[in-house]
Amino acid sequence: VQLVESGGRLVQAGDSLRLSCAASGGTFSNYVMGWFRQAPGKEREFVAAITWSDGGTTYADSVKGRFTISRVYVRNTMYLQMNSLKPEDTAVYYCAARYKGGTAYDYWGQGTQVTVSS
Fold this sequence. Notes:
Elements: E1 2-6, E2 10-12, E3 17-24, E4 31-38, E5 45-51, E6 57-59, E7 67-72, E8 77-82, E9 91-99, E10 107-108, E11 112-117
């Protein structure tokens, strides 16, 4: 499985940004795909996840109501729409994948930098 993120850049507080994750090399109907982020000096944290087969979603409390995770099933592409961005959203954002029956994310992308200036 290969995951490639794109879309990160420098934005201002209050702006919106959409990240993309292109997935290949797997049958993704059996997967849960997620977004994680890691800010400088902090541990990587969960942001959101989507079950590929039925589109069910979960979110971290810190992004609920501001971020939306989605996927285009036939394109094997996942998105993270981020609205009302805050400086504390600054981080490297990673997409990841795990089997539906598992708990650990086995596959990771290389990350894309999102910087939110105040």
